Amino acid sequence: MCTLLGRLPTAHASEAAALPAGHERAVRIPTVEASATTHMTGNFGIPAGARTAHGLVILAHGGGSSRGSYRNRYLAARLRLAVWATLRVDLLDSRERAADGDGLLRFDIARGRIDLADDSLAHVGAPTQLVVGAADVDTCLLSRPCAQRLAEPVTLQLVLGAGHAFEEPGAIGIVGECVTAWLTRQRRTDRFRRWWSSLPLWPSPPNAGNVAQSMG
User: Tens place of pLDDT for every residue, the chain, 216 residues?
Assistant: First the structure.
């Protein structure tokens, strides 16, 4: 199925008009835990045309909104426009969501709360971007000290006027631009580091990110 930015094509939208956001298909992912849930359902999307994706971005949804909400579909479509493959998955199945009236399961799987993973922050081995609504004061206060405990480079991006779920007009669009811009910078930095390491007898680059950005 071809999609526009988060919206399914209507009877008046041509296939060609829907192509920029790429294709998505439903997938089932086996789980390894011994529980009543044997599969997670998701939607796997690839960029339009014959372009090879830069990589895969997994959008995992743990409660509240599901992977089928407009905001989640918009982010996936925006990422595919930037030539990233996407996988939207729900961490809770339909039975678990129906039974989660008190929100306990959502709490266990964090729901955007990085502080709930405090014991694991020092073991994160990749650059991290945190996008937080500036009006979500509690999450802002919790995210700042946690960001300092991450071992790898971290970017804390605040979206002015936005709350926890980015439901305000235009907020999710800003999130999409922040995420795609950050991924582009990380990809350029990685390419520069690999090029630099291929040169004989050169030291490690002191400011690879800045040099990669100027090269891009």
Answer: 555 565 555 554 444 344 567 889 999 988 876 666 678 889 999 998 867 999 999 998 876 667 888 889 999 999 999 999 999 998 877 777 777 666 666 545 555 678 888 888 888 989 999 999 999 999 999 999 999 888 889 999 999 999 988 999 999 999 999 999 999 999 998 888 787 777 776 555 555 555 445 444
Domain spanning 122-216: CATH superfamily: Alpha/Beta hydrolase fold, catalytic domain (3.40.50.1820)
What distance in Å separates the CA atoms of residue 16 and residue 175, rounded to the nearest whole number?
A: 26
The dihedrals phi and psi of 215, each to the nearest 5 degrees, come to: -75, -30
Domains of the chain, residue spans: 1-111, 122-216
* pTM > 0.85: no
Tokens standing for residue 83: 């030539």
* Per-position b or e across 70-104, b if 16+ CB within 10 A of its CB: ebbbbbbbbbbbbbbbbbbbbbbbeebbeebeeee
